[in-house]
Amino acid sequence: MEVFKTKAALKSALDKLKSVGQQIALVPTMGALHEGHLELVRQAGQHGETVVCSIFVNPTQFNDPEDLKKYPRPIERDIQLLESAGCDILFLPEVEEIYAEQEEWHLDLGYLDEILEGQHRPGHFQGVTQVVYKLFDIVQPHKAIFGLKDLQQFMVVQQLIDLKQLPIALIPASIVREKDGLAMSSRNVRLSPEGRKQALVLHRILQATMADFQQVLKGEKYLEDLRLQAIAQLEKAPGVQLEYFEICELYTLKKADNNTPLKNLVALTAVWVEGVRLIDNMILGQTNP
Ligand code: AMP
To answer: pLDDT, tens digit, for every residue of 202-249?
Structure first.
């Protein structure tokens, strides 16, 4: 695996590959890699594409300075993991390589910027689109792979691609979970063994919601019952502070109500455990892991 720290060096290597017809797949990450990221890398290269992974802890998408400070950065380990997963190129820039001193950015994300993650992390998706647009511009990949763990982010990136009319195929990757169901996240390492156990409630409640969705399909319960039930459970879960739990239409993320057609729905939640913010989601009425 080749490691590039500057845009210029990366671009010149990629130009050579593109000139002989090589397809490029990009996997943007913030590092502290786990099996979820490595699945993205494997998926990126499955048709012989050159896989470029970026590791960049992007300051503009952190609305909480403490979270940015505490974000894990185990770079030597990340490099080994990427090599073992078959990554071809790592782009590892410093902040100054990506941002000039003063930069303005605003993309009209409409409703997506105001709900769920957008509502609870003001400015987050502006920061995400700002850095992803820069990475797309530097790498100019044929495709980009993003995980569905960050479902709303996936939709925001699709909107970026549409608005800027970029010739990039956005490829979704399923959520990778620990054996006990906890969605893998770089932030999980900040949980104590006790907190980690408490965090399992997220997956438990999502699964229960998915199971109870069968009753909604049979007309025995309303969607709103499921939402209120999940909220009540999460509110009384020890060590857990609930931020949101919503059932939404999958392709728009509009909040579902009792009149919403019972297909293509997703339950999404965000909670805090031991000062760590965790998110998860599950598509209802499908076989989820
Ligand atoms: P991050 O490093 O957290 O910014 O994530 C980089 C990419 O990995 C994003 O596209 C995430 O959606 C994806 N990702 C993170 N965790 C998981 C997971 N558990 N399963 C699948 N994809 C994930």
So the answer is: 999 999 999 999 999 999 999 999 999 999 999 999 999 999 999 999
Question: What is this structure's pTM?
Answer: 0.97
Task: Return the ligand 1 atom nearest residue 31 CA.
Answer: 2
Q: How far is Cα of residue 87 from the mean position of the Cα atoms in its chain?
A: 19
Pocket, ligand 1, Cβ cutoff 6 A: 29-30, 36-37, 40, 146-147, 149-150, 173, 175-176, 183-186
Other Cβ atoms closer than 10 A to 266: 21
C-beta neighbour count of 272 within 10 angstroms: 14
List, in sequence order, the alpha helices (H) in 150-279.
Answer: 151-163, 193-199, 201-217, 223-236
Q: Which residue lies with its CA nearest to atom 13 of ligand 1?
A: 147
Confidence at residue 101, expressed as pLDDT on a 0 to 100 scale: 86
- Containing 75, the helix (H) or strand (E) segment is helix 75-85
- Measured from the Cα of 153, ligand 1's closest atom is 12
Residue of the nearest CA to atom 7 in ligand 1?
29
Instruction: Note whether 191 and 274 are within 8 A (CB).
Output: yes
pLDDT digits 0-9 by tens, 125-161? 999 999 999 999 999 999 999 999 999 999 999 999 9
Which residue's C-alpha comes closest to atom 6 of ligand 1? 29
Average pLDDT over residues 110-127: 97
Task: Give yes or no for a contact between 154 and 170, defined as CB atoms under 8 angstroms apart.
Answer: yes
Active site residues per annotation: 37
Which is nearest to 187 in space by CA: 62, 53, 41, 26? 62
Torsion of CA 127, 131, 137, 139, to 10 degrees: -150
